[in-house]
């Protein structure tokens, strides 16, 4: 039996997908969405790209004074 190439990949639930849509529509940053969903930022970006969900372009957190 062949080992999965991505053994740690978690499937997206319909609830997670809806939360991604809602947060993206509200203008949340990809890193904020990732934190809320317990996923990595690349996972959020990949899912958004796959489903043509526009994300905010700002990725860097603002630096303090």
Secondary-structure content class: mainly alpha
- Strand percentage lies at under 5%
Distance between the termini: 55 Å
Radius of gyration: 14 Å
Unreliable parts: none
Summarize the main sheet: none
* Average of pLDDT: 84
- Quickly count the helices: 3
**Helix and strand string, N-terminal first?**
HHH
What oligomeric state do the depicted chains represent? Answer: single chain
Helix content: 40-55%
Note the overall shape: globular
Number of strands: 0
Characterization of this structure:
By secondary structure, this protein is mainly alpha-helical. The protein is 46% helix and 0% strand. It has 3 helices and no strands. The protein has helices at 14-25, 30-37, 41-50. The longest helix is centred in the first third of the chain and has 12 residues, at 14-25. It is globular. It starts with 13 loop residues before the first helix and ends in a 15-residue tail after the last helix. The model has no long low-confidence stretch (mean pLDDT 84).
List keywords for this structure.
65 residues; mainly alpha; 3 helices; globular
Itemize the secondary structure elements and their pairings.
Blueprint: H1 14-25, H2 30-37, H3 41-50
Helix pairs in contact: 2-3
